[in-house]
Amino acid sequence: xxxxxxxxxxxxxxxxxxxxxxxxxxxxxxxxxxxxxxxxxxxxxxxxxxxxxxxxxxxxxxxxxxxxxxxxxxxxxxxxxxxxxxxxxxxxxxxxxxxxxxxxxxxxxxxxxxxxxxxxxxxxxxxxxxxxxxxxxxxxxxxxxxxxxxxxxxxxxxxxxxxxxxxxxxxxxxxxxxxxxxxxxxxxxxxxxxxxxxxxxxxxxxxxxxxxxxxxxxxxxxxxxxxxxxxxxxxxxxxxxxxxxxxxxxxxxxxxxxxxxxxxxxxxxxxxxxxxxxxxxxxxxxxxxxxxxxxxxxxxxxxxxxxxxxxxxxxxxxxxxxxxxxxxxxxxxxxxxxxxxxxxxxxxxxxxxxxxxxxxxxxxxxxxxxxxxxxxxxxxxxxxxxxxxxxxxxxxxxxxxxxxxxxxxxxxxxxxxxxxxxxxxxxxxxxxxxxxxxxxxxxx
Length: 444
Ligand code: HEM
Fold this sequence. Notes:
By secondary structure, the chain is α+β, with helices and mostly antiparallel strands.
Protein backbone atom coordinates (compact mmCIF):
# COMPACT_ATOMS: atom_id res chain seq x y z
CA UNK A 1 0.00 0.00 0.00
CA UNK A 2 1.39 3.46 -0.87
CA UNK A 3 -0.49 6.65 -0.20
CA UNK A 4 0.16 10.28 -1.16
CA UNK A 5 1.13 12.90 1.45
CA UNK A 6 -1.60 14.72 3.33
CA UNK A 7 -2.82 16.57 6.37
CA UNK A 8 -1.62 15.27 9.75
CA UNK A 9 -4.34 17.10 11.70
CA UNK A 10 -6.84 14.97 13.65
CA UNK A 11 -9.87 13.84 11.64
CA UNK A 12 -12.30 16.10 13.50
CA UNK A 13 -10.21 19.17 12.68
CA UNK A 14 -10.09 18.19 8.99
CA UNK A 15 -13.85 17.60 9.05
CA UNK A 16 -14.55 21.02 10.56
CA UNK A 17 -12.23 22.65 8.01
CA UNK A 18 -14.15 20.99 5.18
CA UNK A 19 -17.48 22.02 6.69
CA UNK A 20 -16.57 25.63 7.50
CA UNK A 21 -14.29 26.53 4.60
CA UNK A 22 -14.53 23.79 1.98
CA UNK A 23 -12.97 25.69 -0.91
CA UNK A 24 -10.21 27.32 1.14
CA UNK A 25 -9.29 23.90 2.59
CA UNK A 26 -9.12 22.23 -0.83
CA UNK A 27 -6.97 25.06 -2.21
CA UNK A 28 -4.66 24.90 0.80
CA UNK A 29 -4.23 21.12 0.80
CA UNK A 30 -3.64 20.88 -2.95
CA UNK A 31 -1.06 23.67 -2.75
CA UNK A 32 0.68 22.09 0.22
CA UNK A 33 0.62 18.39 -0.76
CA UNK A 34 0.07 18.37 -4.55
CA UNK A 35 -3.00 17.55 -6.59
CA UNK A 36 -3.38 14.04 -5.16
CA UNK A 37 -3.41 14.00 -1.37
CA UNK A 38 -4.62 12.01 1.63
CA UNK A 39 -7.25 12.93 4.21
CA UNK A 40 -8.36 11.09 7.34
CA UNK A 41 -7.05 10.49 10.83
CA UNK A 42 -4.66 8.02 12.40
CA UNK A 43 -7.34 5.54 13.45
CA UNK A 44 -9.43 5.74 10.25
CA UNK A 45 -8.72 4.23 6.86
CA UNK A 46 -7.25 6.96 4.64
CA UNK A 47 -9.28 8.78 1.98
CA UNK A 48 -7.40 9.88 -1.11
CA UNK A 49 -8.50 12.96 -3.03
CA UNK A 50 -7.98 12.52 -6.79
CA UNK A 51 -8.41 15.15 -9.51
CA UNK A 52 -6.19 14.23 -12.48
CA UNK A 53 -8.00 13.04 -15.64
CA UNK A 54 -5.98 9.78 -15.61
CA UNK A 55 -7.04 8.92 -12.05
CA UNK A 56 -10.65 9.90 -12.70
CA UNK A 57 -10.74 7.71 -15.82
CA UNK A 58 -9.53 4.72 -13.77
CA UNK A 59 -12.06 5.36 -10.97
CA UNK A 60 -15.10 5.89 -13.23
CA UNK A 61 -14.28 2.83 -15.34
CA UNK A 62 -13.37 0.44 -12.52
CA UNK A 63 -15.75 -2.53 -12.12
CA UNK A 64 -18.09 -2.22 -9.13
CA UNK A 65 -16.41 -5.16 -7.36
CA UNK A 66 -13.13 -3.19 -7.38
CA UNK A 67 -14.35 0.30 -6.52
CA UNK A 68 -17.77 0.48 -4.86
CA UNK A 69 -19.85 3.15 -3.20
CA UNK A 70 -19.17 4.13 0.38
CA UNK A 71 -21.91 3.78 2.91
CA UNK A 72 -24.10 6.90 2.87
CA UNK A 73 -25.25 8.65 6.00
CA UNK A 74 -28.01 7.24 8.18
CA UNK A 75 -29.50 10.71 8.27
CA UNK A 76 -29.97 10.87 4.50
CA UNK A 77 -31.36 7.33 4.65
CA UNK A 78 -33.95 8.32 7.23
CA UNK A 79 -35.06 11.18 4.96
CA UNK A 80 -35.20 9.43 1.60
CA UNK A 81 -36.07 5.92 2.78
CA UNK A 82 -33.89 2.82 2.96
CA UNK A 83 -35.35 1.62 -0.37
CA UNK A 84 -33.83 4.57 -2.22
CA UNK A 85 -31.68 3.21 -5.02
CA UNK A 86 -28.66 5.22 -3.84
CA UNK A 87 -28.43 2.98 -0.73
CA UNK A 88 -28.88 -0.34 -2.50
CA UNK A 89 -26.10 -2.82 -3.27
CA UNK A 90 -24.53 -2.29 -6.70
CA UNK A 91 -26.61 -4.80 -8.70
CA UNK A 92 -29.96 -3.65 -7.34
CA UNK A 93 -28.83 -0.01 -7.67
CA UNK A 94 -28.10 -0.57 -11.35
CA UNK A 95 -31.40 -2.45 -11.88
CA UNK A 96 -33.38 0.50 -10.56
CA UNK A 97 -31.31 3.02 -12.53
CA UNK A 98 -32.16 1.01 -15.66
CA UNK A 99 -35.86 1.33 -14.85
CA UNK A 100 -35.71 5.01 -13.97
CA UNK A 101 -33.42 6.40 -16.71
CA UNK A 102 -35.48 5.56 -19.85
CA UNK A 103 -38.73 6.61 -18.17
CA UNK A 104 -37.14 9.81 -16.96
CA UNK A 105 -36.00 10.65 -20.52
CA UNK A 106 -39.44 9.89 -21.94
CA UNK A 107 -41.06 12.12 -19.31
CA UNK A 108 -38.58 14.96 -19.94
CA UNK A 109 -38.75 14.93 -23.71
CA UNK A 110 -42.51 15.05 -23.71
CA UNK A 111 -43.25 18.09 -21.65
CA UNK A 112 -40.28 19.78 -20.23
CA UNK A 113 -39.11 22.70 -22.41
CA UNK A 114 -42.30 24.73 -22.64
CA UNK A 115 -42.97 24.15 -18.94
CA UNK A 116 -39.56 25.48 -17.91
CA UNK A 117 -40.08 28.64 -20.00
CA UNK A 118 -43.61 29.19 -18.59
CA UNK A 119 -42.53 28.56 -14.97
CA UNK A 120 -39.61 31.00 -15.30
CA UNK A 121 -41.77 33.69 -16.89
CA UNK A 122 -44.37 33.36 -14.14
CA UNK A 123 -41.95 33.38 -11.20
CA UNK A 124 -39.64 36.18 -12.43
CA UNK A 125 -42.64 38.13 -13.80
CA UNK A 126 -44.18 38.18 -10.30
CA UNK A 127 -41.14 39.86 -8.71
CA UNK A 128 -41.65 43.49 -7.77
CA UNK A 129 -39.50 45.74 -10.01
CA UNK A 130 -36.91 47.70 -8.04
CA UNK A 131 -37.11 45.46 -4.91
CA UNK A 132 -34.20 43.25 -3.92
CA UNK A 133 -34.84 39.51 -4.08
CA UNK A 134 -32.86 36.57 -2.75
CA UNK A 135 -31.63 34.82 -5.91
CA UNK A 136 -31.26 31.38 -4.32
CA UNK A 137 -34.82 31.39 -2.98
CA UNK A 138 -36.24 32.38 -6.38
CA UNK A 139 -34.14 29.78 -8.22
CA UNK A 140 -35.30 27.17 -5.69
CA UNK A 141 -38.92 27.98 -6.53
CA UNK A 142 -38.18 27.51 -10.23
CA UNK A 143 -36.28 24.24 -9.76
CA UNK A 144 -38.93 22.80 -7.43
CA UNK A 145 -41.74 23.60 -9.89
CA UNK A 146 -39.74 22.05 -12.74
CA UNK A 147 -39.02 18.80 -10.88
CA UNK A 148 -42.61 18.47 -9.64
CA UNK A 149 -43.90 18.96 -13.18
CA UNK A 150 -41.52 16.25 -14.41
CA UNK A 151 -42.32 13.83 -11.64
CA UNK A 152 -46.06 14.29 -11.12
CA UNK A 153 -47.20 15.95 -14.37
CA UNK A 154 -50.25 18.21 -14.33
CA UNK A 155 -52.92 15.63 -13.39
CA UNK A 156 -54.41 15.95 -9.91
CA UNK A 157 -53.26 19.54 -9.60
CA UNK A 158 -54.60 19.96 -6.06
CA UNK A 159 -52.71 16.96 -4.72
CA UNK A 160 -49.56 18.17 -6.44
CA UNK A 161 -49.98 21.56 -4.75
CA UNK A 162 -50.32 19.82 -1.37
CA UNK A 163 -47.18 17.81 -2.09
CA UNK A 164 -45.40 21.03 -3.06
CA UNK A 165 -46.46 22.87 0.10
CA UNK A 166 -45.39 19.95 2.30
CA UNK A 167 -42.01 19.80 0.55
CA UNK A 168 -41.58 23.57 0.95
CA UNK A 169 -42.28 23.26 4.70
CA UNK A 170 -39.73 20.43 4.91
CA UNK A 171 -37.10 22.40 3.00
CA UNK A 172 -37.73 25.45 5.19
CA UNK A 173 -36.98 23.34 8.27
CA UNK A 174 -33.72 22.23 6.65
CA UNK A 175 -32.81 25.86 5.99
CA UNK A 176 -32.89 26.62 9.72
CA UNK A 177 -29.45 26.75 11.37
CA UNK A 178 -31.01 25.22 14.51
CA UNK A 179 -32.07 22.09 12.65
CA UNK A 180 -28.71 21.99 10.86
CA UNK A 181 -26.84 21.95 14.21
CA UNK A 182 -29.29 19.39 15.62
CA UNK A 183 -28.75 17.12 12.64
CA UNK A 184 -24.99 17.50 12.87
CA UNK A 185 -25.18 16.37 16.50
CA UNK A 186 -27.56 13.56 15.56
CA UNK A 187 -24.89 12.12 13.24
CA UNK A 188 -23.03 11.10 16.39
CA UNK A 189 -26.15 10.19 18.45
CA UNK A 190 -28.52 8.44 15.99
CA UNK A 191 -31.03 7.89 18.83
CA UNK A 192 -31.93 11.59 18.43
CA UNK A 193 -33.39 10.75 15.02
CA UNK A 194 -35.98 8.48 16.66
CA UNK A 195 -37.50 11.33 18.71
CA UNK A 196 -41.11 12.16 17.94
CA UNK A 197 -40.91 15.59 19.58
CA UNK A 198 -39.16 18.86 18.77
CA UNK A 199 -37.71 19.76 15.41
CA UNK A 200 -37.09 16.21 14.28
CA UNK A 201 -40.69 15.40 15.30
CA UNK A 202 -41.83 18.13 12.89
CA UNK A 203 -39.70 16.62 10.14
CA UNK A 204 -41.26 13.19 10.82
CA UNK A 205 -44.78 14.64 10.81
CA UNK A 206 -44.22 16.34 7.41
CA UNK A 207 -42.65 13.14 6.05
CA UNK A 208 -45.75 11.15 7.07
CA UNK A 209 -48.03 13.67 5.37
CA UNK A 210 -45.89 13.57 2.23
CA UNK A 211 -45.90 9.76 2.23
CA UNK A 212 -49.65 9.50 2.46
CA UNK A 213 -50.05 11.94 -0.47
CA UNK A 214 -47.46 10.13 -2.60
CA UNK A 215 -48.79 6.62 -1.87
CA UNK A 216 -52.33 7.65 -2.79
CA UNK A 217 -51.01 9.11 -6.07
CA UNK A 218 -49.10 5.87 -6.83
CA UNK A 219 -52.27 3.85 -6.23
CA UNK A 220 -54.31 6.17 -8.47
CA UNK A 221 -51.79 5.97 -11.30
CA UNK A 222 -51.45 2.18 -11.12
CA UNK A 223 -55.21 2.03 -11.79
CA UNK A 224 -55.19 4.41 -14.76
CA UNK A 225 -54.06 1.86 -17.32
CA UNK A 226 -55.70 3.53 -20.31
CA UNK A 227 -54.43 7.04 -19.60
CA UNK A 228 -51.68 8.67 -21.70
CA UNK A 229 -48.65 8.84 -19.45
CA UNK A 230 -46.17 11.68 -19.64
CA UNK A 231 -44.90 12.04 -16.08
CA UNK A 232 -42.24 9.97 -14.35
CA UNK A 233 -44.52 8.71 -11.57
CA UNK A 234 -47.09 7.23 -13.99
CA UNK A 235 -44.37 5.73 -16.16
CA UNK A 236 -42.67 4.08 -13.17
CA UNK A 237 -45.97 2.86 -11.72
CA UNK A 238 -46.82 1.01 -14.93
CA UNK A 239 -43.49 -0.27 -16.29
CA UNK A 240 -41.30 -3.28 -15.52
CA UNK A 241 -37.75 -4.47 -16.21
CA UNK A 242 -36.64 -7.15 -18.70
CA UNK A 243 -37.63 -9.88 -16.19
CA UNK A 244 -41.13 -8.44 -15.85
CA UNK A 245 -40.40 -7.14 -12.35
CA UNK A 246 -41.86 -3.73 -11.51
CA UNK A 247 -40.95 -1.37 -8.67
CA UNK A 248 -42.82 -1.65 -5.37
CA UNK A 249 -44.77 1.36 -4.00
CA UNK A 250 -42.03 1.97 -1.46
CA UNK A 251 -39.28 1.79 -4.08
CA UNK A 252 -41.15 4.32 -6.23
CA UNK A 253 -41.77 6.64 -3.27
CA UNK A 254 -38.11 6.48 -2.24
CA UNK A 255 -36.91 7.01 -5.82
CA UNK A 256 -39.13 10.09 -6.28
CA UNK A 257 -37.94 11.68 -3.04
CA UNK A 258 -34.34 10.91 -3.99
CA UNK A 259 -34.75 12.68 -7.33
CA UNK A 260 -36.47 15.67 -5.74
CA UNK A 261 -33.94 16.05 -2.92
CA UNK A 262 -30.92 15.42 -5.18
CA UNK A 263 -32.09 17.74 -7.91
CA UNK A 264 -33.76 20.70 -6.35
CA UNK A 265 -31.01 22.48 -4.41
CA UNK A 266 -28.19 21.55 -6.83
CA UNK A 267 -30.02 22.99 -9.86
CA UNK A 268 -30.98 26.11 -7.88
CA UNK A 269 -27.34 26.62 -6.85
CA UNK A 270 -26.13 26.26 -10.44
CA UNK A 271 -28.70 28.77 -11.70
CA UNK A 272 -27.86 31.25 -8.93
CA UNK A 273 -24.18 31.14 -9.88
CA UNK A 274 -25.12 31.52 -13.54
CA UNK A 275 -27.13 34.70 -12.89
CA UNK A 276 -24.31 36.06 -10.77
CA UNK A 277 -21.64 35.52 -13.45
CA UNK A 278 -23.56 36.86 -16.43
CA UNK A 279 -24.26 40.09 -14.54
CA UNK A 280 -20.86 40.31 -12.84
CA UNK A 281 -18.62 39.94 -15.92
CA UNK A 282 -19.08 42.77 -18.34
CA UNK A 283 -20.39 41.82 -21.76
CA UNK A 284 -21.53 38.23 -21.03
CA UNK A 285 -25.24 39.05 -20.65
CA UNK A 286 -25.10 41.13 -23.84
CA UNK A 287 -23.52 38.27 -25.80
CA UNK A 288 -26.23 35.87 -24.59
CA UNK A 289 -28.84 38.45 -25.56
CA UNK A 290 -27.34 38.99 -29.03
CA UNK A 291 -27.29 35.27 -29.70
CA UNK A 292 -30.93 34.95 -28.63
CA UNK A 293 -31.99 37.98 -30.72
CA UNK A 294 -30.41 36.60 -33.83
CA UNK A 295 -31.61 33.01 -33.67
CA UNK A 296 -33.96 32.10 -30.78
CA UNK A 297 -37.45 30.77 -31.37
CA UNK A 298 -39.13 30.24 -27.98
CA UNK A 299 -41.66 27.82 -29.49
CA UNK A 300 -38.71 25.46 -30.13
CA UNK A 301 -36.95 25.00 -26.75
CA UNK A 302 -34.71 22.18 -28.04
CA UNK A 303 -33.23 24.58 -30.61
CA UNK A 304 -32.58 27.21 -27.94
CA UNK A 305 -30.74 24.60 -25.90
CA UNK A 306 -28.36 24.06 -28.84
CA UNK A 307 -27.20 27.72 -28.99
CA UNK A 308 -23.40 27.55 -28.60
CA UNK A 309 -22.71 30.63 -26.45
CA UNK A 310 -25.65 29.89 -24.13
CA UNK A 311 -24.30 26.37 -23.65
CA UNK A 312 -20.77 27.71 -23.07
CA UNK A 313 -22.05 30.06 -20.32
CA UNK A 314 -23.83 27.17 -18.54
CA UNK A 315 -20.78 24.90 -18.81
CA UNK A 316 -18.37 27.59 -17.59
CA UNK A 317 -20.67 28.21 -14.60
CA UNK A 318 -20.66 24.49 -13.75
CA UNK A 319 -16.88 24.41 -14.18
CA UNK A 320 -15.95 27.37 -12.03
CA UNK A 321 -18.63 26.80 -9.35
CA UNK A 322 -19.63 23.14 -9.41
CA UNK A 323 -22.57 22.91 -6.94
CA UNK A 324 -21.13 19.58 -5.67
CA UNK A 325 -17.41 19.87 -4.87
CA UNK A 326 -16.91 16.08 -5.00
CA UNK A 327 -18.69 13.05 -6.35
CA UNK A 328 -20.24 10.60 -3.90
CA UNK A 329 -17.52 8.91 -1.86
CA UNK A 330 -16.23 5.56 -3.15
CA UNK A 331 -14.30 2.75 -1.45
CA UNK A 332 -11.63 0.40 -2.76
CA UNK A 333 -12.90 -3.20 -2.62
CA UNK A 334 -10.05 -5.01 -4.42
CA UNK A 335 -6.42 -3.80 -4.60
CA UNK A 336 -5.98 -1.30 -7.43
CA UNK A 337 -3.33 1.07 -8.74
CA UNK A 338 -4.47 4.67 -9.33
CA UNK A 339 -2.08 7.41 -10.43
CA UNK A 340 0.90 5.28 -9.33
CA UNK A 341 -0.48 4.57 -5.82
CA UNK A 342 -1.26 0.99 -4.79
CA UNK A 343 -4.46 1.08 -2.76
CA UNK A 344 -5.74 -1.62 -0.41
CA UNK A 345 -9.41 -2.55 0.18
CA UNK A 346 -11.05 -0.15 2.62
CA UNK A 347 -9.26 2.96 1.29
CA UNK A 348 -11.67 5.82 0.69
CA UNK A 349 -11.73 7.66 -2.66
CA UNK A 350 -12.79 11.25 -3.11
CA UNK A 351 -13.04 12.52 -6.70
CA UNK A 352 -12.64 16.27 -6.37
CA UNK A 353 -14.75 17.94 -9.04
CA UNK A 354 -13.63 21.35 -7.79
CA UNK A 355 -9.89 20.61 -8.12
CA UNK A 356 -10.33 18.83 -11.49
CA UNK A 357 -12.06 21.97 -12.79
CA UNK A 358 -9.26 24.25 -11.55
CA UNK A 359 -6.29 22.39 -13.10
CA UNK A 360 -4.15 24.97 -14.90
CA UNK A 361 -2.95 22.38 -17.43
CA UNK A 362 -6.53 21.88 -18.64
CA UNK A 363 -8.08 25.29 -17.93
CA UNK A 364 -5.57 28.16 -18.28
CA UNK A 365 -6.35 30.98 -15.81
CA UNK A 366 -8.80 28.68 -14.04
CA UNK A 367 -10.13 31.31 -11.63
CA UNK A 368 -11.43 33.47 -14.49
CA UNK A 369 -14.97 33.07 -15.86
CA UNK A 370 -14.41 32.56 -19.60
CA UNK A 371 -17.28 30.89 -21.49
CA UNK A 372 -15.20 31.07 -24.71
CA UNK A 373 -13.00 28.20 -23.51
CA UNK A 374 -15.95 25.85 -24.12
CA UNK A 375 -16.33 27.21 -27.68
CA UNK A 376 -12.69 26.51 -28.50
CA UNK A 377 -12.25 23.08 -26.94
CA UNK A 378 -14.21 19.90 -26.25
CA UNK A 379 -13.34 18.69 -22.73
CA UNK A 380 -13.36 15.00 -21.85
CA UNK A 381 -15.69 13.58 -19.20
CA UNK A 382 -12.60 13.16 -16.98
CA UNK A 383 -11.76 16.88 -17.23
CA UNK A 384 -15.26 18.37 -17.01
CA UNK A 385 -17.40 16.38 -14.58
CA UNK A 386 -19.96 18.56 -12.75
CA UNK A 387 -22.33 15.56 -12.67
CA UNK A 388 -19.78 12.95 -11.55
CA UNK A 389 -19.41 9.82 -13.64
CA UNK A 390 -19.32 6.04 -13.88
CA UNK A 391 -22.04 4.00 -12.27
CA UNK A 392 -23.31 6.80 -10.00
CA UNK A 393 -23.40 9.54 -12.64
CA UNK A 394 -26.11 12.09 -11.87
CA UNK A 395 -29.52 10.94 -13.10
CA UNK A 396 -30.72 14.50 -13.58
CA UNK A 397 -27.78 15.80 -15.65
CA UNK A 398 -29.74 16.26 -18.90
CA UNK A 399 -32.68 17.88 -17.13
CA UNK A 400 -30.40 20.18 -15.13
CA UNK A 401 -28.50 21.36 -18.22
CA UNK A 402 -31.72 21.87 -20.20
CA UNK A 403 -33.24 23.75 -17.29
CA UNK A 404 -30.19 26.02 -16.87
CA UNK A 405 -30.20 26.96 -20.55
CA UNK A 406 -33.92 27.65 -20.81
CA UNK A 407 -34.12 29.59 -17.54
CA UNK A 408 -31.17 31.74 -18.63
CA UNK A 409 -32.60 32.30 -22.12
CA UNK A 410 -36.06 33.19 -20.76
CA UNK A 411 -34.67 35.65 -18.22
CA UNK A 412 -32.29 37.37 -20.66
CA UNK A 413 -34.93 37.61 -23.40
CA UNK A 414 -37.72 38.95 -21.18
CA UNK A 415 -36.29 40.71 -18.13
CA UNK A 416 -33.53 43.05 -17.07
CA UNK A 417 -31.86 42.11 -13.77
CA UNK A 418 -29.13 43.87 -11.81
CA UNK A 419 -26.84 42.86 -8.91
CA UNK A 420 -27.60 44.78 -5.73
CA UNK A 421 -23.94 44.63 -4.66
CA UNK A 422 -21.43 44.63 -7.55
CA UNK A 423 -18.57 43.27 -5.39
CA UNK A 424 -17.35 39.65 -5.80
CA UNK A 425 -19.46 37.12 -3.98
CA UNK A 426 -18.18 34.45 -1.57
CA UNK A 427 -19.04 30.76 -1.96
CA UNK A 428 -20.80 29.23 1.04
CA UNK A 429 -21.63 25.64 1.94
CA UNK A 430 -25.27 24.74 2.42
CA UNK A 431 -25.64 21.01 3.12
CA UNK A 432 -24.02 19.28 0.19
CA UNK A 433 -24.03 22.23 -2.21
CA UNK A 434 -21.91 25.35 -2.58
CA UNK A 435 -23.92 28.53 -3.09
CA UNK A 436 -23.19 32.18 -3.75
CA UNK A 437 -23.54 33.60 -0.27
CA UNK A 438 -26.48 36.03 0.16
CA UNK A 439 -26.77 36.90 -3.52
CA UNK A 440 -29.38 39.63 -4.03
CA UNK A 441 -30.60 41.10 -7.32
CA UNK A 442 -33.46 43.26 -8.54
CA UNK A 443 -35.60 43.44 -11.66
CA UNK A 444 -35.20 46.88 -13.30
C1 HEM B 1 -26.77 21.45 -11.80
C2 HEM B 1 -27.44 20.52 -11.14
C3 HEM B 1 -26.88 19.23 -10.63
C4 HEM B 1 -25.59 18.89 -10.29
C5 HEM B 1 -24.36 19.77 -10.36
C6 HEM B 1 -25.60 17.50 -9.85
C7 HEM B 1 -24.48 16.80 -9.44
C8 HEM B 1 -24.49 15.47 -9.04
C9 HEM B 1 -23.32 14.73 -8.63
C10 HEM B 1 -21.90 15.27 -8.58
C11 HEM B 1 -23.71 13.47 -8.31
C12 HEM B 1 -22.81 12.33 -7.81
C13 HEM B 1 -22.32 11.53 -9.02
C14 HEM B 1 -21.17 10.58 -8.71
O1 HEM B 1 -20.93 10.23 -7.56
O2 HEM B 1 -20.47 10.19 -9.66
C15 HEM B 1 -25.15 13.40 -8.50
C16 HEM B 1 -25.91 12.27 -8.29
C17 HEM B 1 -27.28 12.27 -8.45
N1 HEM B 1 -28.08 13.28 -8.95
FE1 HEM B 1 -27.49 15.13 -9.53
N2 HEM B 1 -26.89 17.04 -9.92
C18 HEM B 1 -27.69 18.05 -10.41
C19 HEM B 1 -29.05 17.99 -10.66
C20 HEM B 1 -29.82 16.88 -10.48
C21 HEM B 1 -31.22 16.79 -10.80
C22 HEM B 1 -32.05 17.92 -11.44
C23 HEM B 1 -31.63 15.54 -10.42
C24 HEM B 1 -32.98 14.91 -10.51
C25 HEM B 1 -34.07 15.53 -10.70
C26 HEM B 1 -30.49 14.85 -9.86
C27 HEM B 1 -30.50 13.56 -9.39
C28 HEM B 1 -29.38 12.85 -8.97
C29 HEM B 1 -29.43 11.48 -8.47
C30 HEM B 1 -30.69 10.64 -8.32
C31 HEM B 1 -28.13 11.11 -8.16
C32 HEM B 1 -27.66 9.76 -7.60
C33 HEM B 1 -27.32 8.82 -8.73
C34 HEM B 1 -26.96 7.41 -8.27
O3 HEM B 1 -26.44 7.22 -7.17
O4 HEM B 1 -27.20 6.48 -9.04
N3 HEM B 1 -29.41 15.69 -9.92
N4 HEM B 1 -25.59 14.64 -8.97
